Amino acid sequence: MKVSSKGEYALRALLILGQHQGKVMTIQEISEKTLVTINYLEQILLQLKKLDYVKSKRGASGGYFLHKNTNEVNIGEVIRNLEGPLSPMGCASITKYEPCPLEAGCQLKPLWSLVRDTIAFVLERTTLEDLLLNRIALLKGEDLFVKEK
Fold it and tell me: Does the CA dihedral 67-16-131-94 come out positive or negative?
């Protein structure tokens, strides 16, 4: 899984709109706060609108606003909707599985599955509210592996 600039910028825009929940923000304001060009931001906000994360208001006082509560915006869902599967390899993907001719005895597949599960574990349990309130706990690398006894 690789988060593209589109995914990152979409999360930045959602964070800004979440910080100003209930307020309509112009695309210019969002652009200035996210450092994303207006042209690219328009494309991203249109996609977020189609996915029902944001709404728009037309007119002189128009712009965009967050359509959902911040605790309802799941980061894993946002990333999947914008970027596709969370798995680093198609053979380990649950949603977009791609067979591999070497898969039967592959010693790498368990690693790719662990990476997928770890990414999903973190992203699926994170909401926009968690990001806004800095509720992200750091995991220690050794906590992620099962130790043999």
Answer: positive
Which residue spans of the chain are classified as CATH 1.10.10.10?
5-66
Give the domain 5-66 fold.
Arc Repressor Mutant, subunit A (1.10.10)
Over residues 19-28, the mean pLDDT reads 95
How far apart (Å, rounded) are the C-alpha atoms in residues 97 and 107?
Answer: 17
In tens, the pLDDT along 93-126 reads 888 888 889 888 899 999 999 999 988 988 998 9
- The tokens describing 106, both together, are 């592959």
Average pLDDT over residues 124-130: 92
Confidence (pLDDT) at 144: 52
**How would you label 38-58 residue by residue, b for 16+ Cβ within 10 Å and e otherwise?**
eeebeebbeebeeeebbeeee
